[in-house]
Amino acid sequence: MRLIVAKDYEEMSRRAADILAAQVILKPDCVLGLATGSSPIGTYQELIRRHKAGEVDFSRCSTVNLDEYVGLPADHDQSYAYFMRHNLFEHVNFRTECLNIPNGLEKDAQKECARYDAVIRDLGGIDMQLLGLGPNGHIGFNEPDDVFPTGTHMVQLTDSTIQANKRFFASEADVPRYAYTMGIRDIMQARRVLMVVSGKGKAEILRQALLGPVTPRVPASILQLHRNCVIVADEEAASQV
Ligand code: GLP
Question: Which mutation among 70, 101, 138, 160 tests ligand 1's pocket best, with the greatest number of atoms within 8 A of CB?
Answer without folding.
Answer: 138
